[in-house]
Amino acid sequence: MVAARARLLVAALWAGSLWTIGYVVAPTLFLTLHDNVLAGTIVGYLLRTEAWLCIGCALVLRLLVMFSPMEKERKRTLYVLIVAMLLCAIVIYVGLQPAMANLKEAAGAAGLKGTPEGRTFGIVHGASQLVYLVESVLAGVLLAKMR
Fold this sequence. Notes:
Elements: H1 2-33, H2 36-66, H3 72-107, H4 116-146
């Protein structure tokens, strides 16, 4: 009973942090700061922190599921969800975020607006948002399967 509650708590932390940062905090920063560069910088830091939280939650959940007395098929389903969510976080943190940072750095003080780098940034940013959405949906499925 305690292990089941611990699994649900960690899954809720993971899902809640994803949803809060991605769908509440980030949009609010862009709407209220009126400085997209500053908002983007803050969101970037938050997403890096989120990535580490995701890695931690994935490791803890993996251990909690491994040592839980549940059916083999259910464990496998939970492992697949955990790994898929972790891969989403890693793709964003290791691949897409550094690519966006490099594009911003290459643009320099002039900024990305109206440049080829700006167009590429938009594509990479869109891919990042798509992967984040997939991870967010998987988080809902994980929560539902965790019960």
